[in-house]
Amino acid sequence: MSEAGGDKEAGTATYDVIVLGAGPVGQNVTDRARAGGLSVAVVERELVGGECSYWACVPSKALLRPVIALADVHRVDGARQAVTGRIDSERVFGRRNHYVSDWDDSGQAEAVKSMGADLFRGQGRIDGPRRVTVTSDDGARRTLTARHAVAVATGSLPSLPDLPGIQEARPWTNRRGTDSSNVPARLAIVGGGGVGVEMATLWQGLGSQVTLLARRALLPRMEPVAGELLERGLTEAGVDVRIGRQVTALRRPQPQGPVTLTLDDGSEPEVDEILFATGRRPATDDIGLDTVGLTPGSWLDVDTTCLVREVDGDWLYACGDVNHRALLTHQGKYQARTAGDAIAARAAGRPLDDAPWGDHATTADQHAVPQVFFTDPEAAAVGLTAAQAARAGHRVRTVDVPLNAAQGANLFADGYRGHARLVVDEDRGILLGVTFVGPGVSELLHSATVAVAGEVPLKRLRHAIACFPTVSEIWLFLLAAYQRERG
To answer: What family is this (predicted)?
Structure first.
């Protein structure tokens, strides 16, 4: 099928499914709907591949990997002596450019079309039930009608605070933080969540003097030990970490001049650029939600099949960031696969298995969300923290073990420093959550995700033998510590 747009494409067309957004989430809806035998139109207003491919996950990790690799080398005696120069930022930016295909989306556009879907470029807006209008850059307008479903996968946008001087300061968001090819001498980052700490790791590693400002602890939604170890790591790397500080105003009198921050403690640090990582808002302002009784710019409330609850007729779905269940690409893709299968099943009149852990239920969004921050040290977690589990009414026991209890950790890095925590449901004998903090722990997370999502009993988990000498052997020490604590 073909890519559509422009005057010659103006008119109407009917499909089984219309997908708004051609990022990873929209592509997964498309793939599953096509696997179910449905015709699909995909509408994209920016680059096919979305935020993740060009301004978030892919470029940030492409940029961070050289920084982390260099830090890892410095932790191994005999290897650190071979490193004599500074990081080559131009080569790092070139590596990033390679992985984002120089912001050329033709390859991903071909991938969408290879699924058998039609791609429409332009602004897609819902225009009443099961109808979408697409306005291309040249003003041509086309009306698409869906027989079965419209799926919203438009993602989210940076949320900036309303501060005096913020417009003249021209702050960076995650987009400028990942597509810039210039290293600012001094960079302030506002926000201690995942984006903020990754950007602090990245730009300090590339040579900026970074000041990180956070209202509360770093990574506040994870176990406290994650933020504590990360604060220590960033500080040792040279980042000026200021916890409990807020920006109250900004000044940038000259367009190319420095930015002066006014903080709530009265201090006024001066930097060359400022990056805000202070949250996200749904990219739903201009997609026609008002035509079906919803509020433009709102998050979309969905059921376990990602069907929007407040719209009658069982035709409007919302997957990924827009439903606010888990603002993570991998979770959005998981939701999209479920939604695509549910759309196909409903279209064919097949029964839906939407019970917990069923084929058509996004249950993991409530119980087993994995997340990794590629900082130094890395922070990885799945499921509930101890505090979250207690608030949910579980009777829990926490088990804490330093990661260097595993010989594999010490062989991975001299003087390895890290931490592991289990959150155990004492009544059911299963894991509710797992947290790892330390170099290289991202590769430990899937084993924990399987244990949490699979509700593997601890008495069975102890028979999953970890190879010696790997960092994964930490599981042996965690389970042994749990047995000792129980007595």
So the answer is: Belongs to the class-I pyridine nucleotide-disulfide oxidoreductase family.
Question: Residue 21 and residue 52: Cα distance in Å, rounded?
Answer: 12
Residue 228: half-sphere exposure toward Cβ, Cα within 13 Å:
7
Element (H, E) at 382: strand 378-383
> Across residues 184-193, what is the average pLDDT?
98
Tell whether the model's pLDDT for residue 3 goes beyond 80: no
**Cα–Cα distance for residue pair 213/187, rounded to 1 Å:** 11
Residue 412 contacts residue 418 (beta carbons within 8 Å): no
Residue 299: exposure state from Cβ atoms within 10 A (0-12, 13-18, ≥19): middle
76 contacts: CB under 8 Å, gap ≥ 6: 413, 414
Distance CA 33, CA 403 (A): 43
Is the whole-model pTM more than 0.85? yes
Pair of tokens at residue 207: 């040579």
| Domain limits for position 214 | 166-278
| Rounded Cα–Cα distance for residues 62 and 82 (Å) | 23
Same domain, 248 and 294: no
Q: Do 423 and 433 meet the contact criterion of CB atoms below 8 Å apart?
A: yes
Question: Would you say 277 and 157 are in contact if contact means Cβ atoms under 8 Å apart?
Answer: no
For residue range 102-150, list pLDDT tens digits in order.
999 999 999 999 999 999 999 999 999 999 999 999 999 999 999 999 9
- The residue type found at 485 is E
Question: Are residues 245 and 186 located together in one domain of the fold?
Answer: yes
In this structure, how many other beta carbons lie within 10 angstroms of the beta carbon of residue 103? 13
Averaged pLDDT for residues 411-436: 97
Inter-CA distances, 267 with 161, 193, 212, 249, Å: 19, 23, 14, 11
Assign 3-state DSSP to the chain and report helix, strand, coil percentages, each to 5.
35, 25, 40
**Which residues are within 8 A (CB) of 262 and not within 5 positions of it... i.e. 6 or more apart?**
247, 248, 249, 250, 251, 268
Report yes or no on 474 lying in a domain: yes
The 3-state DSSP class for residue 148 equals strand
